[in-house]
Design goal:
mainly beta, five-stranded antiparallel beta sheet
Length: 145
């Protein structure tokens, strides 16, 4: 779900699109099934080329810098910039480009819990994408090892 520092008390609600720019960042919630207890989870960002997408699309410009972090709580439809969960772990900035996938972090799966992560622009990056698992998948995902 996107949230805006320019409108810190306005909740944008849920969205199927990830949006990041100098004025918008996005929070993603993930439900971790109980069956993942004792396993390792990985946060990955999949960013295929536009030509490889069948049911999704994206717009992208800038230097490609995206700051990824885990949050100390989850987001809901009432989450705004001013009441968003605090950063738990800062994973730093990853420079992305279409046609690639990125391993952001690995951690013990928090089985039975909902966990959240944030994507923020670094530099002049602007990205808007429809999170989609159809060929080719695009977006932020949790994988299990």
């Amino acid at each position: 779900m996107p949230h805006h520092p320019i409108h810190p008390n306005t909740a944008a609600g849920t969205s199927l699109n990830g949006q990041i720019s100098s004025t918008v960042s996005s929070i993603f919630n993930f439900d971790i099934p109980y069956s993942n207890a004792g396993k390792t989870c990985s946060l990955v960002f999949l960013f295929p080329k536009q030509a490889d997408l069948q049911t999704s699309s994206f717009t992208f410009s800038g230097n490609g810098g995206i700051a990824f972090s885990s949050l100390n709580g989850t987001a809901n439809a009432q989450t705004s910039f001013s009441n968003a969960p605090e950063i738990g772990t800062d994973y730093g900035v990853t420079t992305v480009a279409p046609g690639n996938s990125y391993h952001i972090a690995s951690f013990a799966c928090q089985a039975g819990k909902t966990i959240a992560f944030e994507m923020e622009a670094s530099g002049n990056t602007e990205l808007n994408f429809f999170q989609d698992f159809n060929p080719s998948p695009i977006g932020l995902y949790i994988t299990v090892c």
